[in-house]
Specification:
108 residues, mainly alpha, 2 domains, 5 helices, 78% helix
Length: 108
């Protein structure tokens, strides 16, 4: 019977999973500093240590929001697509050439 109480307590302590949006809300509340970490922890049901980690991650990642990384990634992707189209065109031309060269050997 005593084990049932322990198992029940463990079930209650299962990890809570937060979406990226929820994490951002918590981190933003911590960055604003209009409430204490304890108040934020109580309001969002998040451990204070976790709030500190999300706040730190948000501050570190904030500069990437304003960087040209997305533009560079898009440019790299377009360059890769152009290269793949060039290769496909080259393969198509080679295939047409091979078909012409093999025509005399076909049985039809």
């Amino acid at each position: 019977m005593e084990n049932d109480g322990i198992i029940g307590a463990r079930k209650e302590q299962m990890k809570k999973v937060f979406s990226p949006k929820q994490k951002a809300e918590v981190a933003l509340a911590a960055i604003k500093e209009t409430q204490t970490i304890a108040q934020i922890s109580s309001a969002f049901e998040v451990h204070p240590t976790q709030i500190g980690l999300w706040k730190k991650q948000a501050k570190e990642g904030l500069s990437e929001v304003f960087s040209d990384k997305r533009k560079k990634d898009s440019q790299n992707q377009n360059e890769k697509i152009d290269e793949l189209y060039r290769i496909i065109g080259q393969r198509d031309a080679e295939l047409v050439w091979l078909k012409k060269k093999l025509e005399p050997f076909s049985s039809s």
